[in-house]
Amino acid sequence: MIWLLIFLMCGWGAGIPAAFAQTSRAKKTATQPVQKHQWPIESLKVEGSHNYTPAQILAVAGLKIGQLAGKPEFEAARDRLVATGMFETVGYKFAPGGDKNGYAASFQVVEAQPAYPIRFDDLGVPEKDLTEYLRGKDPLFAPRLAATKAVLERYKQWVQEYMTAHDSKDKVIAKVAPVAPNEFVILFRPARLDPAVAEVAFEGNQVIPTSKLQNTIAEVAVGLPYKEEAFRQCLDSSIRPLYDARGRIRVAFTKVTVEKATDVQGLAVKVTVDEGGTYDLGSVRIEGAPHFEPVRLLKTGKFKSGDLADFDEVGKGVDRIKKVLAHEGYMRNDVQIVRKIDDAKKIVNLTLHIDEGPQFVFGTLHIEGLDLNGESAIRKMWTHKEGTPYNPEYPDYFLRHVHEEGLFDNLGETRPEIKIDDKTHIVDVTLFFKYAPPPVNRKKPPAF
To answer: What is the rounded CA–CA span in Å between residue 266 and residue 360?
Structure first.
């Protein structure tokens, strides 16, 4: 044990601290000389993961509890994680374990964004079997994948391997495709040139102009291979909300016809719309949220019973309720809107099913980039007390206030970094401050 303590106090070599930490962005680093110092790993943790489980990440890292490891082994594990393309940054750190005879180690990851759900289209193989095959190929397989070029190419090759092994002659392509405004999927489909949607026309509409309908559907459907089921999903996800905002909640797309386009290559799709009548908003009630008075939440939502059932406004009200819950530390809250339509009275009653989720509390404030006097001033200004419900908007609000007060000369960029522990429900905050040099006065001296 004494040799491990001496080793950790001295570091790997001159000038390297005992509590060692490394961070790497997704780029090649110089090869480090192999170190002879190795100690057993007592514990392994993962911090910062959301889309992937710690077990998945550690499976790729390749380190196990009880294994002898040193700096080369940890850097190799980090490089394996970076090489997957699933992470923006990967870091590691370790310190003496509980019995002082090994490491307590952890990896810190920032997952690559954006990440989208996977969808398979017209591949001719059972989706369930293909999913299991991909899960066996990649320990990091998840319902959502990072939409990076490396990830898409790797998964495309695996899907191609599976299809070829099952006598398919189709070539596979992988692409990010829209399914609704601001909603995307990673789509795997055959590369054959199926007829694509070139233009969409509407008939029967009066409430919403044709140009508005065409521009909206074009964002998600034009250019994609035509399949009626998928096209109707696009209508439901993009066009139906336009009618929901006008109280036309019984809108129906009664007929969809397809023919070859005359002026452009592809298909011309015509949609017949039955806009239906208008409905008013009836009652709105709250279910769940035991720590909040329903009257308070309904008042926050500002729902206007008796007015036109505008579901854009309903959505804004739900967002206001979610923000109130988040301010009280319920950051993982979820609200589901359930409609009950009364066709006789032409009203729609709503039930908001609220899942508060766990309550998070503020833990520790860390400050980087200031001297002792500056750090002391910031800590006096910071009013979010340890152990109180965490307000996720407070760090950004606080930094804006610091800039507005002008407490520091030449204050540059500031940013908060939030560390959320989903097991303990504690949130730690680090505030980063940078110095901005004053602008150089480039005025020319007066001429003699």
So the answer is: 53
pLDDT tens for each residue of the chain, 448 residues long: 434 433 343 343 333 333 334 444 444 444 444 445 788 998 899 988 888 999 999 999 999 988 998 889 999 999 999 999 999 889 888 777 766 678 888 999 989 889 999 999 888 899 999 999 999 999 999 989 999 998 999 999 999 999 999 988 889 999 898 877 678 899 998 887 678 899 999 999 999 999 999 999 999 899 888 889 889 999 999 999 999 999 999 999 999 999 999 888 899 999 999 999 999 999 999 999 999 999 999 999 999 999 999 999 999 999 999 999 999 999 999 999 999 999 999 999 999 999 999 999 999 999 999 999 999 999 999 999 999 999 999 999 999 999 998 888 889 999 999 998 888 999 999 999 998 777 666 555 555 4
- For domain 361-435, the CATH architecture is Roll (3.10)
As a whole number of angstroms, the distance between CA 320 and CA 327 comes to 11
Q: What is the pTM of this model?
A: 0.64
CATH 3.30.390.30 for the 280-355 domain, yes or no? no
Tell me the domain boundaries of the chain: 2-111, 115-274, 280-355, 361-435
CATH superfamily of 2-111: membrane protein fhac (3.10.20.310)
Nearest CA to 197 out of 256, 238, 242, 239 is that of 256
- CB burial class (10 A; 0-12, 13-18, 19+) of residue 235? buried
Q: May I ask the CATH architecture of the domain 115-274?
A: Roll (3.10)
